[in-house]
Amino acid sequence: xxxxxxxxxxxxxxxIIPYERxxxxxxxxxxxxxxxxxxxxxxxxxxxxxxxxxxxxxETHTFSEYTLKRQCDPEFLDVLDDKIDDVxxxxxxxxxxxxxxxxxxxxxxPVLPGVNTSFMGMAKELGVWDERCAACGDCRLEETAGIxxxxxxxxxxxxxxxxxxxxxxxxANKDMDCAWVLIYKRLERLEQLEKMRRYxxxxxxxxxxxxxxxxxxISVDVVDVGEDNG
Length: 230
Hints:
CATH topology of the largest domain: Rossmann fold
Strand order of the largest sheet: 3-2-4-5
Number of strands: 7
Largest sheet: 4 strands, parallel
Helix content: 25-40%
CATH architecture of the largest domain: 3-Layer(aba) Sandwich
Radius of gyration: 23 Å
Distance between the termini: 39 Å
């Protein structure tokens, strides 16, 4: 899932200065799960902005709120068609993809980011998420026993640990396990240590040119079949 953190209140207040009518827009999927931009966070931010405005004595903004099921897919944005005419800007609590989807759908409407998108991660415990994937486009998890050295090694080393690892910990962060020690132990448990003896080439940065686009072969096949049957 995509993990994000809500921007500081003062930063958000600075962004909305030019706009009178502000729609605070939440996201019902990733941002809800990571407590950054779901319906609850939208309500909390709405209240915080109103309180801050009242304390400042400069009540120039009016706020409304709404939470979409998802901001990143165009079909979920249709419900906003009758709402944007009444606002001057949308303060999105969706990830960076959601902000851009809104900006593309409503080109005449300023869309402001209310969160800082951090990484793709997994839940470690209640309220804690760890980065696990960098979307590098060149996945090698089969070679490293399902542990990603690009995200879990601070140096992104692809061929074994550096000389700085000590007692299984990373030299850059003594509280963090060395990714390559974890990889070694898991390969050992899987009886696949021969993979540690191979040399793996450098990352292929051309594997993921920006911006990229992926077309689902399944969707294309379904369309082709439908046309044939027609």
